[in-house]
Design brief:
Blueprint (H helix, E strand, L loop, with lengths): L10 H27 L14 E10 L3 E10 L12 E5 L5 E6 L1 E3 L21 E4 L30 E9 L12 E6 L5 E3 L3 E2 L4 E3 L6 E3 L2 E9 L1 H4 L5 E7 L2 E5 L15 E2 L22 E2 L7 E10 L3 E10 L6 E2 L2 E5 L6 E5 L2 E4 L9 E5 L7 E2 L7 E9 L16 E4 L2 E2 L14 H23 L1
Parallel strand pairs: 14-18, 16-17
Antiparallel strand pairs: 1-2, 1-13, 2-7, 3-6, 3-8, 4-7, 5-6, 9-13, 10-13, 11-12, 14-15, 18-19, 19-26, 20-25, 21-24, 21-27, 22-26, 23-24, 27-28
């Protein structure tokens, strides 16, 4: 039954509305709760299938436990693990211990006082494990280990996005029926943001011999999947975007207090402060607390997007990345941009570029990252704390325009974190048609006046 021409609702409609409103309220509250508390908050529209996979392969049984190979694979397209790297934690289901490890180490040994002869590597009920440093002794290394916890994103370098270590577990049981899976997995990378699901038994992993002629398999395999949520990582952005264009003298800065406002006089340092000459001022702290340059936006990183040239068949954009943190440099950084014309990128200068097609029919997202040994390390704030590049895009006559801010990005991510863009009503716009027409008419009038003076 419908209402048309502002007719008054009938008694039946009012009765239906009165009886259905509690149900509608319940549905509304259920949907709202799911949006707030459900794991769907970890969904990223630019990387819908991105996650971190942790696979445990039991390779052999020991007298009181098992020997396992643990593989961490970063399947995220553009989010990587920067220094000081990943930290993996879990809680044992029984009273297991770690006898020994290769390629990684437990942060704490715990209370192992009841062991007299052989002292375990860790007796913690909830161990925390970190990667070894690149200079680790050879007899402590394992395949794909010893990177200091740094993992590249899958889209940037699939080979460097894998880490592994070997672990010898005791007091755990010596068969598929007696071994209990660890629980309450946690992953830091290096800060918070990851949520891990429960360990699940999966079909045993198969391994090929070096000559490819023999296939072996793990005795037991379980898998853990961890997803990232920016809401868990931080309440505030960690980067911002400023804009400019050749056709406008206006430079749109990052929004004020984009990443928070300074709380006291010691929360930031001026660019020309004498404190920067103090020894150790650039040394990172254990809690990873930043030391930012005083700015209006107070962001560790700023991305500047400048529309530089407009050719007949192409247009050119310049991107500049500036680090405002005096205590942090960014290794293997990534910058992801979302713009409809990124489907026609012709040439990129001084950056590597890779198209990211999260959806097969849509190609409007691309990832920029530094060239190895050239600019893949963004230095701390200062004269060297920046990187920049330019790129050409071929025009699509059906869609290209410089009006209404079309030439600026829809989204910008730095190191997997979405950056705050200025409000659209502040974008640099083309001069309105009246002004352009006025200039053109003025030129024609001046030219006609010149001819008139020459003739007469």
């Amino acid at each position: 039954m419908s209402l048309r021409n502002n007719a008054e609702p009938s008694y039946e409609v009012l009765l239906l509305h009165r009886h259905s409103s509690p149900r509608l309220k319940f549905v509304f509250l259920a949907v709202l709760s799911c949006l707030i508390f459900c794991p769907a908050a970890a969904y990223d529209p630019l990387d819908p299938n991105g996650n971190v996979s942790i696979r445990w392969d039991v390779m052999s049984w020991t007298t009181d436990g098992y020997m396992a190979s643990v593989t961490i694979t970063n399947l995220q397209l553009f989010r990587h693990f920067m220094s000081p790297g990943w930290t993996l934690g879990w809680r044992w289901a029984k009273k297991e211990i770690i006898w020994a490890m290769l390629g990684a180490q437990a942060v704490e040994q715990g209370d192992c006082s009841k062991f007299k002869l052989n002292i375990p590597h860790s007796c913690k009920r909830d161990p925390k494990v970190v990667d070894l440093l690149p200079n680790a002794p050879f007899n402590q290394q394992f395949t794909n280990c010893c990177k200091g916890g740094v993992l590249a994103s899958w889209g940037q370098d699939p080979i460097a996005s894998v880490a592994a270590f070997q672990i010898s577990v005791g007091l755990s049981g010596t068969s598929n029926k007696t071994v209990k899976l660890p629980k309450n997995f946690t992953l830091l990378g290096p800060g918070p943001g990851y949520t891990c699901g429960p360990a699940k038994l999966v079909p045993s992993t198969h391994f090929l011999s070096p000559d490819g002629r023999r296939k072996a398999q793990a005795l037991m395999t379980w898998n853990v999947t961890c997803t990232y949520s920016k809401f868990l990582a931080s309440e505030k952005p960690s980067c911002c975007v400023s804009l400019s264009a050749f056709y406008s003298p206006k430079i749109v800065p990052c929004p004020g207090c984009a990443c928070g406002c300074p709380t006291n006089n010691n929360s930031c340092i001026l660019a020309n402060s004498t404190l920067l000459k103090k020894e150790g001022i650039n040394t990172p702290r254990k809690d990873n607390a930043p030391l930012l340059q005083c700015t209006k936006h107070m962001c560790p990183v700023r991305i500047h997007w400048h529309i530089k040239y407009n050719y007949e068949l192409y247009w050119r954009v310049k991107i500049a990345i500036t680090n405002f943190d005096f205590r942090r440099n960014y290794t293997q950084w990534t910058l992801v941009a979302n713009h409809p014309n990124l489907n026609n990128v012709t040439q990129v200068f001084s950056f590597n570029y890779k198209s990211l097609s999260a959806y097969q029919d849509i190609n409007d997202t691309g990832m920029f990252y530094g060239m190895k040994f050239y600019n893949d390390l963004l230095m701390e704030a200062g004269p060297s704390g920046n990187a920049q590049s330019e790129f050409l895009m071929e025009k699509d006559k059906n869609t290209f325009t410089l009006r209404h801010g079309w030439g600026f990005p829809r989204k910008i991510y730095f190191n997997g974190e979405e950056c705050l863009l200025p409000p659209p009503d502040q974008y640099p716009f083309l001069p309105n048609s009246a002004n352009v027409h006025y200039v053109a008419v003025s030129k024609v009038a001046a030219f006609a006046l010149l001819i008139f003076l020459c003739i007469f």
